[in-house]
Amino acid sequence: MSERVAQIAERDFESAVLESEQPVLVDFWASWCGPCKTVAPTLEALAEEYAGRLNIVKIDVDEAPELAARFGVRGVPTLMLFLGGNVEASKVGAMPRAQLAAFLDANL
């Protein structure tokens, strides 16, 4: 992880995501997931680009299965954009940087 994209534990989800004053993009991922590894550098770049407007966090579904189930995560990577503690939009699967930026711009 980096300074801009933090791996959080299930116990930190409420404070880091649901109570955040900024929008939060949550990357539900797994260490064994190839597409998750592919999208990671894109998330790092976008974290820099959207600094101050958006927080990006990662949640390992193997370490937080109850949280993944709570939000209906069935495949990884699943990206969910939270605004004001609610899921505003979501995407499943790896996508190119331009597509992910367009997804963020359309929902922020």
What does this structure look like?
It is a single chain. The two termini are 24 Å apart. The radius of gyration is 12 Å and the shape is globular. The chain is α/β, with parallel strands linked by helices and 108 residues long. The chain has one domain (5-106): Glutaredoxin, CATH 3.40.30. It has helices spanning 13-18, 34-49, 65-70, 97-107, and strands at 5-7, 24-29, 55-60, 78-83, 86-92. The model has no long low-confidence stretch (mean pLDDT 95).
- Radius of gyration, in Å, reads 12 Å
- Straight-line distance between termini: 24 Å
Strand content: 25-35%
Helix-strand pattern: EHEHEHEEH
Domain unit count: 1
- Low-pLDDT runs of 5+ residues are none
The CATH architecture name reads 3-Layer(aba) Sandwich
Could you tell me the mean pLDDT?
95
CATH 4th-level superfamily: Glutaredoxin
Strand order within the widest beta sheet? 1-3-2-4-5
Task: Write a short abstract of this structure.
The model has no long low-confidence stretch (mean pLDDT about 95). Helices cover about 35% and strands about 25% of the residues. By secondary structure, it is α/β, with parallel strands linked by helices.
Q: What are the salient characteristics of this protein?
A:
108 residues, alpha/beta, Glutaredoxin, 5-stranded mixed beta sheet, 4 helices
Question: Mind sketching the topology for me?
Answer:
Layout: E1 5-7, H1 13-18, E2 24-29, H2 34-49, E3 55-60, H3 65-70, E4 78-83, E5 86-92, H4 97-107
Parallel strand pairs: 1-3, 2-3
Antiparallel strand pairs: 2-4, 4-5
